[in-house]
């Protein structure tokens, strides 16, 4: 995403007080030679190892001995990570557009193929952690993915910061795990502060799910 694509869709100085802070580095995150090193050169592998842990825990049934040992290790790890805590505006996943899902473990990992006012195209993979049942992705994780990508489409279309007002997901067929899927999100129209958006999720030619929603552009200072 470059400055022309993002426009004013990201928090600016007007949104700083009591709400969004200036995040100008996001606007330039996809331009060539832009420094996206927040979190350091090992941040991507750090996030991948965390995702790997989440995958393993999702299907783990540990023995008592392993559970006790793991609890001790996790406590030690959490103590170490306490020293690395920052506020939400300083986390690397605001700027790390070089990583799947911006390095945000809340999101299923995706990579962008196109971001513009005409819409957002991305490739997404639901992992073991996102299991709902019978080797299919959980509907809640599908909704999380739609929410993030529809928000991106709404913000770029409107050229302003937006928040979700409503989101409806229709599940059309099974969404498989560990398979690269295609997401398309776009804005249909804008009426004042209301931006109406739609999205689809495909496994090849098969429609897995689709969504429509309403996003609202924020007033300066609005949280």
How would you describe this structure to a colleague?
The radius of gyration is 19 Å and the shape is globular. Helix content is 28%, strand content 28%. The strands form two sheets. Strands 1-2-6-7-8-5 form a six-stranded antiparallel sheet, with helices on one face. Strands 3-4 form a two-stranded antiparallel sheet. It is built from five helices and eight strands. By secondary structure, the protein is of the alpha+beta class. The longest helix is centred in the middle third of the chain and has 20 residues, at 139-158. The chain has helices spanning 3-6, 24-27, 43-58, 64-82, 139-158, and strands at residues 110-116, 119-125, 131-133, 136-137, 162-171, 180-191, 194-203, 206-217.
Number of helices: 5
- SSE run: HHHHEEEEHEEEE
- The chain-level structural class is alpha+beta
> In order across it, which strands form the biggest sheet?
1-2-6-7-8-5
What features would you highlight for this structure?
disordered N terminus; 28% helix; six-stranded antiparallel sheet; alpha+beta; two-stranded antiparallel ribbon; globular; 223 residues
Concise description?
The protein contains 5 helices and 8 strands. With 223 residues, it is an alpha+beta fold.
Question: What secondary-structure arrangement, pairings included, does this model have?
Answer:
Blueprint: H1 3-6, H2 24-27, H3 43-58, H4 64-82, E1 110-116, E2 119-125, E3 131-133, E4 136-137, H5 139-158, E5 162-171, E6 180-191, E7 194-203, E8 206-217
Antiparallel strand pairs: 1-2, 2-6, 3-4, 5-8, 6-7, 7-8
């Amino acid at each position: 995403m470059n400055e022309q694509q993002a426009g004013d869709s990201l928090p600016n100085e007007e949104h700083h007080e009591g709400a969004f802070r200036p995040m100008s580095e996001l606007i330039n995150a996809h331009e060539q030679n832009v420094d996206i090193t927040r979190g350091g050169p090992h941040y991507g592998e750090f996030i991948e190892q965390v995702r790997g842990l989440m995958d393993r825990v999702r299907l783990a049934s540990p023995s008592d001995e392993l559970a006790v040992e793991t609890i001790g290790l996790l406590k030690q790890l959490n103590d170490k990570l306490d020293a690395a805590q920052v506020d939400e505006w300083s986390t690397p996943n605001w700027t790390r557009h070089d990583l799947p899902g911006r390095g945000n473990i809340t999101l299923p990992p995706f990579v962008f193929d196109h971001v513009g006012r005409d819409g957002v195209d991305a490739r997404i993979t639901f992992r073991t952690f996102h299991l709902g049942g019978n080797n299919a992705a959980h509907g809640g994780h599908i909704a999380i993915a739609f929410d993030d990508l529809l928000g991106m489409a709404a913000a770029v279309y409107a050229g302003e910061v937006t928040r979700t007002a409503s989101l409806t997901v229709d599940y059309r067929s099974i969404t498989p795990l560990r398979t690269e899927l295609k997401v398309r999100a776009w804005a249909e129209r804008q009426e004042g502060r209301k931006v109406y958006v739609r999205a689809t999720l495909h496994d090849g030619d098969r429609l897995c799910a689709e969504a429509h929603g309403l996003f609202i552009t924020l007033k300066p200072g609005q949280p």
